[in-house]
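Dear colleagues,

As part of the handover before I leave the project, I'm documenting each prediction I ran so the next person doesn't have to rerun anything. This entry is a single chain, and its sequence is reproduced below.
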Amino acid sequence: MTHHGPGAGQIAEQPGHIPVGENRWPLVAVAGVLAFMAMLDMNIVNVALAEIADGLHVSTATAQWAVLGYQLPVVALLLPVGRWLDGVGLRSAVLTATCGFGLCSALAAAAPWAAWLIAARLMQGACGAVLFVLMPVLALRSVRPELRGRAMSVPATLGPLGAVTGPAVGGLLLDHLGWHAVFLVKIPFCVLALVVAWRVMPRDGGLRRPDRRSVVDALLVASGVALVLLTLTLASDHPSWLVLGLALAAVPALWWWLRGPGGRPVVGVLRAAGLFRAHGAVLSLAAGFAAMHYVVALHLQRDNAVSATTTGLTVLAFPLGMGLAGQLGGRLADRYGPRPVAATGAAVTATGLLLLLPLGDGWSPPDVAWRLAVAGIGMGLNGGPTQALVMGAAPPDRTATVGSTMQLARNLGFTLGPALATAAWGLTGPGEGVRAGLAPAATAACLAVLLLALPGRKPTSSPTPAPVPVPEKTTDAAPTAHH
């Protein structure tokens, strides 16, 4: 028989699921808070690097590891964390990861030297990887299926808002309180999430330690993904031989993992659920968003001599449009289905980015702002429905795995976008640089429209969620709901 959807019986059997017929919107709010906090941390430290370098008496290159030390483990550990979270209690994972994230924030703020700061940021990145995977899973399990679009829109909207507002918030804190406050600002969010999760989430089976094979798999995929991320990060500022060497070094580790017992179940789940196109759309739209944000901010300040304050206000048109449209997208997805709403949102975003191309070099902030607002409205319409589309197709016992692959696609897109824009910008003359830098953003958004508009391959009707054996040591996980 076909694989059953997340019906009442399955919800009752899965640890951390809400009781049948009950919605727990405070947990959806927790997912949104965690999304905002984790994405805020991706960008807020950038503005404080010079102050950190002066305060700890190190070079700017060393201070840069306050950013990379967080970003690398976040992206590199997503897939291993997803596989691990499918076999542990959701409440225990939320409480442990949030406590760890807040504690590492305090340790980073108290750092007396650079090695301390980097170590704290590496540990915080590991906790951040757990939070990134937990966001969509928590929203999925906190409401009934007919409200999934609205629930998914909360973290899908607040996460990018955190990423966009990070530099502005960081700048204000830096000017008035110093660089230590850039790390401390996340602690109140952690406390709020902990209080709500402790009081509202049902008790579950707790955590378990990964076995030896899981640790080996984690090292393989983490090293490969970390090298890919470093390649994208260093592409514009370092020699081509170094970038090519890092890219080639990532291939053996990722290939070995994909062919082994750790990677086959992940690929099998995505194939069985027909989710490859949706993941491609997530990556493409994230790359388009990141490329646009990078080019617009840089061009307004560097080439058009617009002040930093005016640039910040102009760029805020995008998150404003996104925030206004986020819940609307969720409601429309619950009524008409997630795929058409997600495709429509991607089309609106692509339209906003395409409207930037005719501007050429002569930009004025109002001309840019309304176009960014259009693109932001599209992203708001797209975010929740896309997450609902992906997570709704995930097998109930593999939601964390699918959540991790989706977050990996999004984070790689965020890193890929500026690299593509920089490369395109550098290949053209001064008169066409901005248009060339924005072309990858618009192209990526248009690709996302095609990937979402084309009907996805139907999930396979096999009795297992993937054409591979279930990973070992899942005895403490919830029973799978197959018939």
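The chain has two domains: 8-208, 262-460. Residues 21 and 144 are 7 Å apart (CA to CA).

All the best with the project,
I.
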